[in-house]
């Protein structure tokens, strides 16, 4: 590992990493994995209230900050790597997504281009950048034709980094991540919603859009492992698929969650007024390139991921205050989105099953 990759001034034994979106679902796990590997971790989030962590989290709105300020912070921290786990998906307007998923990456690339010892950039992208796909494995060469604002904004962010690496202004990788599960899955997602419903033992039925899709799922801790492997890799200027490598029926996952919970929950499937997005039908990521270049493959099975998701949801419900009482820091932290950007009322239906 080069001196620059090792973190430079202020780096820990393994290096120094700055994680954007450090208080979000994926960002928290990434910080933990890097910390366990001996890196000095600095988290970045727009709102750091109630963020109790063993590593430092600094408040910064990366979209609103000047490139010079971002560059100064990275230089001060001696960052050998920057992982962008920030973004907007749930409860976000299209403008929010454009700012958080595209403009943020552009600002980050502009900032690192000013640094003499440029940190390695790891951009967390999304399978939704590909758009609708046939029933074959999605490779990194699959055309990107996203049909949702989220997919389009994530693709714009990926292109910002890839264009910068091609011109020699940056070094790094885009990790195109499938649907993420595991402990801390947000309540607005399909699995998070079902887990919360089961954890509360709610008597009323849970109404969902028809569970017809087959999707690729990967545990959040495996995503964090992939980010660490990418930070340590010499590969640059490429897209790597990060997923479970199989298409799984979402109906079977909901049934398995219910079985693991041991609860007699009633789940009702009913068509939504807006219909289903075309890209929601079938996904299977080909993860061979990540295995070749990073030595990475998922280590956690879906059953383990679902068990830990359910246990986390039960713990979160147990820590929630009574109605009308102020929320505790712990409860708020468990359910937080990435706080790199504040988001507005939702334009993405829960029935989208992301």
Helix content: 25-40%
In spatial order, strands of the major sheet run 3-2-1-4-5-6-11
> Strand tally, please?
13
Radius of gyration: 19 Å
What class, by secondary structure content? Answer: alpha/beta
Order of helices and strands: EHEEHEHEHEEHEEEHEEHEHHH
Instruction: Give the overall form.
Output: globular
* Distance between the ends: 37 Å
Strand content: 15-25%
The low-confidence parts are: 1-10, 323-354
Q: Summarize model confidence as the mean pLDDT.
A: 85
Count, helices: 10
- Biggest beta sheet attributes: 7 strands, parallel
Describe the structure.
The protein is α/β, with parallel strands linked by helices. 36% of the residues lie in helices and 16% in strands. The protein is built from ten helices and 13 strands. It has helices spanning 25-36, 67-76, 94-112, 149-166, 190-200, 220-232, 250-261, 288-294, 302-319, 329-335; strands at residues 15-20, 39-45, 56-59, 81-84, 120-126, 172-177, 179-181, 206-208, 214-215, 217-219, 238-242, 248-249, 267-269. It has a seven-stranded parallel beta sheet, sandwiched between helices. A two-stranded parallel sheet has the order 7-10. Helix 4 links the parallel strand 5 and strand 6 (172-177). Helix 7 (250-261) crosses helix 9 (302-319). The model is unreliable at 1-10 and 323-354 (pLDDT under 50).
